[in-house]
Write a structure and sequence with these properties.
This protein has one helix at 3-9; strands at residues 15-17, 21-24, 27-29, 33-36, 43-46, 54-71, 81-96, 99-104, 108-110, 114-123, 126-129, 133-135, 140-144, 147-149, 152-155, 159-161, 166-170, 173-175, 178-179, 189-191, 200-204, 207-209, 218-220, 227-231, 234-235, 248-249, 292-293, 296-297. It is mainly β. It has one domain (3-251): Pectate Lyase C-like (3 Solenoid). The N and C termini lie far apart (42 Å). The mean pLDDT is 95.
Length: 304
């Protein structure tokens, strides 16, 4: 049975097991469900450029998706995931190769009510805005132990916030993303508001590392800047002077390991740079290691 038939046939509130294998096509969710895959690399949804891998349009409902890889999605709004309405939890997922050339959100477009991302890697996304993730409207997003890397966009290669988006990144790594086009802006994170709406970004226990030492880590655009709060983060040298709590600056000294390009080396300045009391209880990194060790925690999405 195809995945869409499994989803369509499930009653509201059900848990649907997504079998291992590579499933070609797109998946639409319009009601409250838990979709449980076998794990990234095991349950794979390959949209083959025919639409977003996952489209969630479930007003008033809660949708949870775990244990999946979402590959090669493409649409005018949101390549890998297009979240339009409801509440979404995406956990233990890999989003790769998404494209959204017309608007943005090559990896993720989040414009519903609330979204929680836990251990999600977003790579090789391409968009007009937000190659990795675009958060739009009044969407409230919290990302825990997530990685955004090797994405590209004209504005916000890694992450883009617009309108009244509210984004909190906890133990996240945003690194090695790129601007593209004639006038690229903000290779890692870019945000801008309007005369009546102001986006807000909070970075806690996180790492931001653009490829160029002089490139901005977080870029405010336009006449209506957003609100940025920084706490216990490792940031690029270009951001020295930024206001925040216990900030460090420099190269995170990544040591790629087993496909994890943003894993930390033992001498990384991100080691023990986080506030362990702001680490969510029991949070594991993308390799399954505890991010908190007693009274210590490492910044970013990986434990040393």
């Amino acid at each position: 049975m195809e995945l869409q038939a499994l989803v369509d046939g499930a009653p509201e509130g059900a848990t649907v097991a997504l079998p291992p294998g590579t499933w070609k096509g797109t998946l639409l969710v319009t009601k409250g469900l838990t979709l449980q895959g076998a794990g990234p690399g095991k349950t794979v949804i390959d949209a083959q450029g025919l639409g977003p891998c996952l489209l969630v349009d479930a007003p008033g409902a809660q949708v949870k998706v775990t244990g999946v890889s979402l590959l090669n999605g493409s649409s005018p709004r949101g390549g890998g995931v297009c979240f339009q309405a409801g509440t979404l939890r995406l956990e233990d997922a890999a989003v790769e190769g998404g494209a959204c050339q017309m608007y943005g959100g090559g990896g993720l477009l989040l414009s519903g009510q609330k979204a929680l991302l836990v251990r999600v890697s977003v790579t090789r996304g391409v968009g007009g805005q937000g190659g990795g993730m675009l958060v739009d409207g009044e969407c409230e997003v919290e990302a825990q132990a997530c990685v955004f890397t090797r994405n590209a966009a004209e504005v916000g290669g890694g992450i883009r916030l617009v309108e009244a988006a509210q984004v909190r990144l906890v133990h996240c790594t945003v690194a090695g993303n790129q601007g593209r086009g004639r006038t690229p802006a903000g290779p890692e994170v870019a945000l801008s508001g309007s005369s009546s709406r102001v986006p807000a970004l909070e970075l806690v226990n996180s790492v931001v590392a653009p490829t160029g030492a002089a490139a901005p880590g977080v870029l405010q655009l336009g006449a209506f800047p957003g609100v940025v709060r920084l706490s216990h983060c490792l940031l690029p040298a270009s951001m020295q002077g930024a206001e925040g709590t216990v900030l460090r600056f420099g190269n995170p000294e990544f040591m790629p390991s087993g496909g994890h390009r943003c894993a930390l080396g033992p001498t990384s300045p991100a080691a023990a740079a986080a506030d362990p009391f702001r680490t969510p209880e029991g949070l594991l990194d993308l390799r399954g290691r505890p991010l908190r060790r007693g009274d210590e925690a490492d910044a970013g999405a990986y434990a040393v």
